[in-house]
Write a structure and sequence with these properties.
Elements (H helix, E strand, L loop, with lengths): L11 E7 L2 E6 L5 E3 L20 H4 L4 H11 L5 E6 L5 H9 L3 E7 L2 H9 L6 E3 L12 E7 L9 H10 E12 L1 H15 L15 E2 L2 H10 L3 E6 L13 H20 L9 E7 L2
Parallel strand pairs: 4-5, 4-7, 5-6, 7-8
Antiparallel strand pairs: 1-2, 2-3, 3-9, 8-11, 10-11
Helix pairs in contact: 2-3
């Protein structure tokens, strides 16, 4: 990552250094990106010979946010949904269970994750491969979702432009990704309290190659032909990575309610939530 994906400027400053990997902020438009050179289509996130999946995290802890999404965005009795980077298929499963009038299709580049989705999760509409190679019919989906995907993609414009072509006119693209300013504050606090250590989650410099703020994520959508950016604050994942503490979950929930209140009272201008939830429309 030598330049900004939004404005192509090479002028940047380091805002965090994660074990020798600088994370850079564009001096022109404010977009933040990792200097780490990741593959465009990295397949190793779910794979590994001895790979096991924490189903408490990927299934149970995600149920609240998936339910909140379905109640908020899938109000029509029927429709077609595509989930890109669907992982183990739990979101596709939630849609099919909660909205029987909807179809839900998932695409995931990890064959191992798709094998789990097909064989253990019973998801017959989850497919392996790049969605760009899927030959899905144009203008066939009402909603397309990307949960924790966009931050992993070095050059996302071509993907979002392709997804734009799959949406019906008036269709909705949903992007969920970490809220960078909040994540940066948390990372700086961790370093201040305990120092920089290997294996600790800071900003995931090797995985999260693009880091988004409200303005820059909306700008990415605009550059790919989308309009009407709208942010909401949805339920959090009801677990804390690396912790089994129920108290930590209650603190996380309390913080969610606090940030939702601030977001509402500020007329959607102040977003202190850990996560960005953005919808964009195809005109």
């Amino acid at each position: 990552m030598k330049s900004c994906i939004l404005c192509q400027s090479t002028e940047s400053k380091t805002v965090f250094n994660e074990n020798g990997i600088p994370i850079l902020e564009c001096q022109n438009c404010g977009h933040v990106y990792s200097s780490y050179e990741q593959e465009e289509h990295y397949e190793g996130y779910w794979d590994g010979a001895e790979q096991t999946y924490d189903l408490e995290w990927w299934d149970n802890a995600h149920r609240a946010v998936y339910s909140d999404f379905i109640k908020t965005y899938l109000k029509e009795p029927k429709g077609n949904l595509l989930d890109v980077g669907c992982g183990l298929g739990f979101f596709v499963k939630a849609v099919l269970q909660d909205k029987p009038g909807w179809t839900a299709v998932g695409y995931e580049i990890s064959k191992q994750a798709v094998k789990f989705a097909n064989e253990q999760n019973g998801m017959k509409t989850v497919y392996a491969g790049l969605v760009q190679d899927s030959k899905l019919p144009k203008e066939s989906f009402d909603t397309i979702t990307l949960w924790d995907v966009i931050e992993h993609i070095p050059k996302p414009h071509s993907l979002l432009t392709y997804l734009h072509s799959l949406l019906k006119p008036g269709g909705v693209l949903f992007l969920q990704t970490p809220n960078f300013p909040i994540q940066l504050a948390k990372a700086n606090l961790k370093v201040k309290l305990k120092g920089m250590k290997e294996g600790v989650h800071y900003l995931e410099a090797k995985d999260h190659v693009n880091n988004y703020k409200m303005a820059t994520l909306a700008e990415l959508g605009k550059q790919c032909g989308f309009t009407n950016p709208e942010y909401k604050v949805l339920m959090p994942i009801l677990s804390v990575s690396g912790s089994k503490s129920k108290l930590a979950v209650y603190i996380k929930l309390a913080y969610y309610y606090f940030t939702k209140l601030v977001f509402t009272l500020s007329f959607k201008t102040i977003n202190w939530n850990n996560t960005l939830f953005l919808t964009l429309k195809k005109p």
